[in-house]
Amino acid sequence: MNNIFQKNISALAVKNPKLAYKLQNYVPMDMPQLVQTNGYNLIYRGKYIHNEQSPLGEAQEIFSYAKNEPVSIHLVYGLGLGYLFQIASLNSKGAVILYEPDLNIMKVVFNLVDFSGDIIKPDVFVCSEYEEVAEAVHQKSGMKNTPEMLTLPTQMEAEGFEELVKKLQNMVGSYSLDLKYTKEKFYPSLKMLLKNIPNLFEEIPLARLKDTYKGKTAVVVSAGPTLDRNIEILKKQRDKYVLFAVGTALKTLIANEIKPDFLVIIETFDSSKQIEGIDLKDVYFITEPYSNPALRNFEFKKRFSHIASNVPVNQFWAEVCGENIDEYFSKGTVSYTALNSARILGCSKIILVGQDLAYIGGQCYSKDSAYKDLVCAHNPESGRWEIMARDFDKFAEALSNSPDIEKRRAAAKRRLENLNNSMHFVKGITGEMLPTESVYAAFVAPLEEFTAKFNDRKYINTSLVGAQLNGFENMSLEKALNDSEIVDVQDLDINFSYDKDVIFSNLSQKFDELNQMISLIEEGKRYAKALNNDLKRYRAATVEVLKALKNLSENYLTLSANNSKLFEFITTADKIDLDYEMKMVQKFDVETVTNISSKILKYLENAEKRIKEINESFNTKS
Known about the structure:
Elements: H1 3-15, H2 17-24, E1 33-37, E2 39-44, E3 47-48, H3 55-64, E4 73-77, H4 83-91, E5 95-99, H5 103-110, H6 116-119, E6 124-127, H7 130-140, E7 148-151, H8 153-156, H9 161-200, E8 204-205, E9 217-221, H10 227-236, E10 242-246, H11 250-255, E11 262-264, E12 284-287, E13 302-305, H12 312-321, H13 334-344, E14 349-353, E15 374-379, E16 384-389, H14 392-399, H15 405-421, E17 423-427, E18 433-437, H16 438-453, E19 458-461, E20 473-474, H17 477-480, H18 500-515, H19 517-538, H20 543-560, H21 565-583, H22 590-621
Parallel strand pairs: 4-5, 4-7, 5-6, 8-13, 9-10, 9-14, 10-11, 11-12, 12-13, 14-19, 19-20
Antiparallel strand pairs: 1-2, 2-3, 15-16, 17-18
């Protein structure tokens, strides 16, 4: 083992010991050839890896086009001789992730070039497996800094490169979806949960009915355009499957005299418009503990809790009520929740209907769904695909529950703007690229990951014209139901009750921990006031101003490091923005200090206001 290789392996062992061990014991099977033309280059499988005229210049040019900020993530695909990796390591103000899946190249080049100083840097990650890349991206990403791929032209031409890019896009999309939920839903979902507590005592955790339908077929119905094409088969063979319907699909099913066994809705906003006016006394309802309280006002046969274990507010509820939630998973899409519910209940074949995740033939939803007025068409003037409403006021009424028509119209306008700003394309089942919205595109990866994780049953997608979902067999609904047996009616009435005294005792302890933060918040507000006074007095980033900023920053860090779950829910959205702003600071002038001070003050004031809000909510319920 030469000295260069040993230095590289020693550095790598600190950062990625698994890869270091694997590389140390790897025997190359296809050796790259080192050549010297205009600088050193590699010939691998008959091709030069770097530019033949200027390998270093090529790397410098590629990096020069990249955005370079303290929050940047530079994903270098392919090591080669390390020109691009070392340029990124030297110049990046953010993080660098090297992804080289070919151990032949990595083993040979680690013997030729000393990367130890690059590898050991805290914001440099070296990966040979996609899962390692995903972990690094999750560690460094935020809502405003998704990875930027830096790749040599020869790597772009390699087999599988486009598939890798799609996989990375889906992964980043899925992560952004999780982060968007974290930022936008943490506090609203906490408020919903606290409001729901009296109702939660009456909701049976779904896992208490595990394997009730073992070996049976489930059909999960969403509101995609192809739902209309499958209605007659659903009616004809209704006795051969357990039917899970998402809220937006309910009206289409009821209009065609098909009643689901289970209705699944998980939104925190009031989506009761989707189901109002429908007799639901014979339908079981599956929902999340944090879903909107208005949904509990309807009369169902029984309500069940799907307590998604990867949703922080549910983890809080599990701590309080003592329920095991390991069986529950969510990715923000109600279809995923319905899919997991069918798995928990033991269904061995799970069939998707109307899960198009794309706009088919100009339709966004099935013709009788709550959002039937939305259409997708190509605008020849703008050259873009656009979402519009056939009847704007009808769409506004279906979307919003507000009695104020102007508020309904404003909500509908915002929804259309958001849809059009997030237009995306996904690969269809037949290979073409289909228009959709970015949220639907982001749902592809979680559904595919689900089938890989729970691969002990059969998954079928009946869309046939929508987005391709790997792990699902593409098949007509009629064929999918051919060998399904008749499902007997099940009585799902079981004895279950929570210990209310224990729950309220645990909640009281959580609120005590939260209220201990108030004195720290008041201290922080005093520091912010002192800092603002110093800024007005000195009008410069003097020693006194920076000392005041240090006091305020230390107060913020103390608050951030506390152990109160409730405080975390209350402050997470502001903390995400504030942490981003603080990472972007490169100099401490008056403008920067004023900006940071105002952001921390906003964080403190919002925390104070929200503590008061949920204290009032808890006192009301207790």
